[in-house]
Amino acid sequence: MTDASTSAYAPPKIWTWSKESGGRFASINRPIAGPTHEKELPVGKHPLQLYSLGTPNGVKVTILLEELLALGQKGAEYDAWLIRIGQGEQFGSGFVKVNPNSKIPALLDRSDPSKPIRVFESGAILVYLAEKFGNAFLPTEPAARAECLSWLFWQMGSAPYLGGGFGHFYAYAPSKIEYAIDRFAMETKRQLDVLDRRLAESEYIAGPGLTIADMAIFPWYGGLVKGWLYNAAEFLSVHEYKHVNRWADRLLERPTVRRGRMVNRLSGEPSSQLHERHDASDFETKTQDKIAPKA
Ligand SMILES: N[C@@H](CCC(=O)N[C@@H](CS)C(=O)NCC(=O)O)C(=O)O
Q: Is residue 126 lining ligand 1, measured as CB closer than 6 Å?
């Protein structure tokens, strides 16, 4: 391993913003919050307006919405609008009003259009929607609810080490730094082992039934073991986590999960990309293979 003390970089006394930092997100990363431009958000016909992108954080919410609709909750019909974070759309004035943190997903509940309710942070959105629809996928018995919320918050605290730590330094940083990749690969594998041990004793994350904890954890750690994230399946030997694999396959059998993964998705097979969703029939008629067929 390279000796960290040989590193050429000595931090200055006061950090200043270098726009030339490089890496995949250099063009959108800023050290300041707030909008960069005026832009109102579109509003569709349904009470629930989702402003998102088909990343792991976005997919959590569309899986829950599709699950709620499959349960017969007609009030869960939603408009899903695309926020292209690579183009800085999260810094538009309308989006910042819904999420002052400028990150997808963000939800506006316009059930009472005179008093819209904004919700940001995917975990808060999952709890808000579960509660709104009669504690769907969120147990009410105290011990089961505590277990579900514990795993939900575990995801919120853990995934930044996977995405912002491991994924960033393994796949996106302009140079490969052994110390950083080592540190976050170790933590990511430890987290996979936490899940694997839990799923050895429990069918779903929080107990015998599917909950919002599964919906939060699946797009990140399920995606990792399925090889969807950072091209890192071999590097992390994800096949070792047998229970996580079993659970991820089980979730993928659900049409709701498959639909949720299609919404606001900008990559992959054109037939798997539904850029915007405004109606249940859009899955049949508005995927990219149908909207923009190859010439
Ligand atoms: N803790 C947040 C994380 C949200 C997040 O990091 N979203 C990313 C996309 S997956 C984003 O919008 N990034 C844009 C940016 O950082 O400017 C949540 O769970 O909602």
A: no
